[in-house]
Amino acid sequence: MRDFSMVTLVKGRRKQLANLLDSIKQSTIFPFDIQIICMDNLAGIEIPEGLKVNIKLIKDDHSLPLASARNMGISTAETDNIIFIDVDCIVSPSLFESMLMNLTEENIIVAYPLYLPIVPENGTYSELIHNAIPHPERKHIPSNEPIPHLKFWSLIFAIKKATFGKIGGFDENFTGYGAEDTDFAMSFNSEGIKQIFVRDYILHQYHDKFDPPLNYFESIIKNAKQYKIKWKVLPMQRWLRRFEELGLIKIDEDDDITIIQKPTEIQIKNSVSPNPY
């Protein structure tokens, strides 16, 4: 099996990171190196005993935009095969092997998420999977065949460093939350790169969800406008239409967005979703 690097980002979420790293100890293959891009400081980061991989902690004193942080992690990876994984994930023992098996310079390999209702005490996949549920919109996506690019989500994906360079990485004009994944999907699709799901899983540890994500209102609007300039269409239309229904924005016939008012603290609080996905 080929060498590979793992990249993850962390801001806060020290327990989730510990569980992710703990789950790797049960993996059938280990990363050659793990790049942890720390977006706050190094306090509280602990590396589990027995994880025999080469780990680097990369610290920046400023709050890194997501696109910049992802690009940094992949650029510093020490192998040509990269698995990017969200810090909220716990990996199945076979995940890395499944994802690397068919990875080429012409594709991006993605796995399926299952969702936990808690942040568990440990990262033991075999014990936790019984409490996990699938995402209703993703569980029926077929595996082992090309999937439409707009189904891409950066929660978990494998890519070759050369492919990432050909795509141009994540566009650092997108800062904060929203549209950076869709933009990346549009970019890799324009280069003829295929997205393929493999029938393997990550467990996603619980954190509060907002639907619509009013907690990210300003960055979503900013990134939606940036995306429209680039691709001539609005992204995140379900969220934007909900913002419009709430009287926060107006979208005209040319898909130009005008902010009417920002969400109130009460509106943000009331947008918390009971679902773990």
TrEMBL record:
<comment type="similarity">
    <text>Belongs to the glycosyltransferase 2 family.</text>
</comment>
<dbReference type="Pfam" id="PF10111">
    <property type="entry name" value="Glyco_tranf_2_2"/>
</dbReference>
<feature type="domain" description="Glycosyltransferase 2-like prokaryotic type">
    <location>
        <begin position="60"/>
        <end position="185"/>
    </location>
</feature>
<dbReference type="InterPro" id="IPR029044">
    <property type="entry name" value="Nucleotide-diphossugar_trans"/>
</dbReference>
<protein>
    <submittedName>
        <fullName>Glycosyltransferase, GT2 family</fullName>
    </submittedName>
</protein>
<keyword id="KW-0328">Glycosyltransferase</keyword>
<dbReference type="InterPro" id="IPR019290">
    <property type="entry name" value="GlycosylTrfase-like_prok"/>
</dbReference>
<dbReference type="GO" id="GO:0016757">
    <property type="term" value="F:glycosyltransferase activity"/>
</dbReference>
<keyword id="KW-0808">Transferase</keyword>
